[in-house]
Design a protein that fits this description.
The complex is a heterodimer. By secondary structure, chain A is α/β, with parallel strands linked by helices. Chain A starts with a strand and ends in a 15-residue tail after the last helix. Classes of the chains: A alpha/beta, B mainly alpha. At the A-B interface, helix 11, helix 12, strand 18 and helix 14 of A face helix 1, helix 9 and helix 10 of B.
Amino acid sequence: MGIVEMTGITKRFPGATRAQSVLANDQVNLELHKGEIHGLLGENGAGKTTLMNILFGLYQPDAGQILVRDQLVTITSPAAAIHHGIGMVHQHFRLVPPLTVTENIILGLEGRGLLDLRAARQRVQQVAEEYGIQIDPGATVQDLSVGQQQRVEILSSLYRGAEILILDEPTAVLTPQEADSLVACLRTMAEQGKTIVFISHKLEEAMRLTDRVTVLRAGRVVFEALTRDTDKAQLAREMIGRDLIALRAEQRNRVLVLAGAQDAAPAGELAAPRATGKVMLEARAVHVNDDRGLPAVRGLSLALRSGEILGIAGVDGNGQRELAEAIVCLRPLQAGQLVIAEEDASHWGTHDFLQRSTGYIPDDRQNDGLILGFDLARNATLKLFRHRPFSAFGFLHDRAISQFTVEMMEDFDVRAPSPFVRASTLSGGNQQKLILARELSQTPRLIIASQPARGLDIGATAYVHQRLMEERDRGGAILLISTDLDEIMLLSDRILVMYNGQSMGELDAYAADAQTLGLMMAGTPLGGAEGAGGAA
Amino acid sequence: MTAREQVTLRRSIDWGALGRSAYQAALSVTLSLLIGALLLLISGQNPVLAFRSLWDGAFGSVNRFTETLVQATPLLLIAISVSLSFRCQIWNIGAEGQVILGGIASIWVALTFSELPPAILLPLTFIGGALAGGMWSLIAGLLKAYAQANEVITTSMLNYIAVYLLAFLVHGPMMDPAGFNFPQSPLIARSLELPRLVAGTRLNVAFLIALLLVGAALLYWRTTLGQRTEIVGASRRVARQIGFSVPATIALVSMLTGALAGIAGWGEMFGLHFRLIEEFARGMGSLGIVVALLGELHPLGMVVSAFLFGALVVGGNAMERNAGVPFALVDVIQGCVILLILARGYIFKFRRGAR
């Protein structure tokens, strides 16, 4: 009998229209047993966090019921969840940096009257020792490392009497060493009878840590098993979805049909890899750090030629963003060499990159791609306004700018009432088309496209894909970075899989199958399990 | 296609937004005046009498009206200066210090090179004032750009340094030797005084220069440099991505903003005081920020609000003299305007368009 049983949980987030609304959880059933570590797996947007936020009382389900210790409960708030013994550690910590560990932990539990900090501190120490958590209750939170802060969060839940502890992608923010120590700590807790839900999209971890796994895909439970009865390859397949090859052919046809092409080719005829032009981008054993200064890309090499799309597949957070930012010269190389259009670009700034006929479609379109408070005309000419005809002698030419924007809106099907409405008023699809217009209008020779269709509806996705394929056919060299394996397989000529900042190998897209790619995404290098991936 | 171009290629004035801004500004000011009236009532004074003397003080005669313009002049210049950095998301509150440095430098140039002909020396004093203001502001700009120092702190600290530097100079090195130990510098040559616009009043050419710079500000936002200022203000990340150096832009904008404030100091010296005196810039910095915010950082909006606050200052002085109401009432009104302008989104429940 489970300590928690969630049955038929359905949650829909409203959008402007029903078509835009998101079905985050669809008839989800989940059972948690006492004393187990339960892995909740799925890709980004699969509905894992939504489901757990419902259990923690942050959202109310549209349908379904929750039983805790066989009692039907309605969890209306986190306070109610804690009352039922449910605690949650979010990806972003909820700590007050200038306060001490003890003060943070008792925050909200002070009661009335005077605060007995000494007693509280002793109790914190006691709980910490019980679960083998090493922390100084008197330390100030802002002086602690991320891993230690996470321990404070966990301790805070335990202090409140949590029996069921939900951890939302706890290792995403940790170094490998911190992750190991977290794993040990969770094991101790499970042995003492705590139930732990471990949300993750990292297969390696799930295999290592969990007792049982549930896989969500597109808001539904698609798989559940005891961890020892399954393997990484199977989990990868379940997370990504079966029958990828058939899907790829079908999607390719759909893209061509939507693009108005009559001769949608059957899947078999796609097979011949094209001969390619000169190398436009080359990375030689590049090393790049992330924002925290930790290595994110570790000795990755790749080469991209004109007239091809090189897909970079991989689970989110394996160094793709840092790689893209290094290539567009936003992020310095720690080591290695970058060659763009046969020039050494290792020490370039963004300005140099822009001058080499390049385009960049960043993954965070609202923060990096556009200035939402600016109108379409200013956004469309962000990279051009310093040049004729958009300005001369330092003065902007409004007429040329708006004329260009109107043309771009027609060419790229950006639907907006005028070039002078703010970019924030556009839908995600139209925003992305505006970015495409800006980045592709000058016929770049090298295009870096990061998650170009993320969050878009089917029509806009197909449009983006069609445009990228047109650019490739025109002779552009395109680096496509995506966590969406369908997208990678649909568009790429070659696929490189990234895991933990390294290349797991490269294969011809027409020879790739989901199982191999899934294994590579989970850290097994191409060409067998005996390689370096086994060391992880 | 041609028809569509004609419709859509012109950036039309957004009358709705303009009306909304004007309405909110007017309402803020009216409410602040009402709060002032309430305070007067509570303290047992006659608000009608007080406000009448305020009005008469500001607009009662040609002399009074020109005095309002005289007071509005530095406020307008400072507001333009402040708006430049605010639109780049640089929260520069160091206008007062920059005004002081502009005053010091321009007087120093005038006294040091007094043998030069006025036609050369006067422009030199202008350049000296602008340069000194710009360099003073650049200190904070560089600290922000390259050391991530919070400019609110650095600029206000620089204000203190400037105030005491001025006090030191007029009590020491720059004190008028024939001035009976008054804390002031010697007078500049008569030939360097800015011409008066209306005989018998203090209204001078500095006012015209301020209006000229309003025009320059309007143009500035239509240049690539203005666009760059706004892009860096709107998103440092996008700015980096399109190849702008964020630190260099911050430094440049800091310098421009300080130069404008320095010009305000120059105007005070050569249009009004003709010598360095202590505390000539007192309170101007904060008042200039209020003017900029009330004018929504738009050059024309700031013309209106500078005029309004010029009137409040002149009228407030008259009110103190004639109705016995302390000038502090003007400070209260000022404070209320800031609060209401900052909180207008919550207070005036307007149906916004998108977003």
